[in-house]
Each structure stands twice: as C-alpha cells, then as structure tokens.
Write a structure and sequence with these properties.
Layout: E1 4-6, H1 14-33, H2 38-61, E2 62-66, E3 70-75, E4 81-86, E5 90-96, H3 99-104, E6 106-113, E7 121-127, H4 129-145
Antiparallel strand pairs: 1-2, 2-3, 3-4, 5-6, 6-7
Helix pairs in contact: 1-2
Length: 146
C-alpha cells in the first residue's frame, strides 16, 4: 500500500490570515491619512508579513507520513528531526476539533505511544480528520489480525 503524506491545512491558519489582513488594512489607512512618517508605516508592516509567512513556514517544515508499518513526523527545513512510531507501539489515537475546525472540517489527531509522551505524534490542523483517524485505526487494527 502506498504511503500517505499529510500536511497542515491552510484552513487551520485562518485566524492568523485574518489578523494579517487587518494589519494590512490598518497600515493602508494610516498611510492614506498621513499621520505617521513612512518609516513607522514600514515598521508596522513587519507583523503583517510575519502573520502571512509564519503559517507557510509551518506548512513547509512539518509533514507526517502514514506507512504500512509506522507513522512518522518530520520537522524542519534545513535540519530534519524525525519521530517514528511503529503501529505495535501505539496505545491509542484521538481526534479533536474546535469550533472553526468543525465549521471548516479540520482538526488535530493525537497518536499516543508506549514510548512515552515525548514520542506522541500530534498531527495539527489536518483536513478531514475523521478520514485520517479511520485510516490510522485500520493500521492499528491490522497488528491484531497478523
């Protein structure tokens, strides 16, 4: 069976994007009414740029692989850190969704490991978390059949 690669959904960053848009509109308003010198406008633009770029950094730097024998969390761009949990070490799996997650259909999946809380894998902001949860439960269920 082929591996499934999961990334965080942009929908999970909607609040960050909304704040960034509000910052841009406020900066545009301050620029139009000319209350502050231009260098202050430039300084105020840094939070807006950060609020737009940080979600993209998280999306690029975090990935999750669901394989036949394990689940892997890969974090980093230049340097990579891998957390691998084989299905026989999984003690449980759970899903959580907030209000926005329920409306936009994204949520978090937590895979608990026997190796300790440090080795738990939390897949944050994934699209269609119920589908991913069922896929992981199938993989866990296979270990009892074999």
């Amino acid at each position: 069976m082929k591996d499934t690669v999961l990334k965080r959904s942009r929908k999970s960053f909607i609040v960050s994007y909304a704040f960034a848009l509000a910052f841009v509109l406020a900066i545009l308003f301050l620029y139009i009414i000319e209350i502050f010198p231009i260098f202050v406008i430039y300084l105020l633009s840094f939070p807006a740029v950060y609020l737009f770029l940080f979600p993209e950094y998280i999306k690029v730097s975090n990935s999750y692989l669901i394989k036949d024998e394990s689940i892997e969390e890969v974090v980093g761009i230049a340097t990579k850190k891998k957390n691998i949990v084989t299905w026989n070490l999984v003690t449980g799996v759970s899903m959580s969704k907030g209000i926005l997650g329920t409306l936009l259909n994204y949520g978090d999946i937590t895979v608990n490991s026997m190796a300790g809380e440090r080795n738990n894998i939390v897949i944050r902001g994934v699209n269609e978390p119920e589908k991913v949860l069922r896929q992981i439960e199938k993989k866990i269920g296979k270990r009892f059949v074999e």
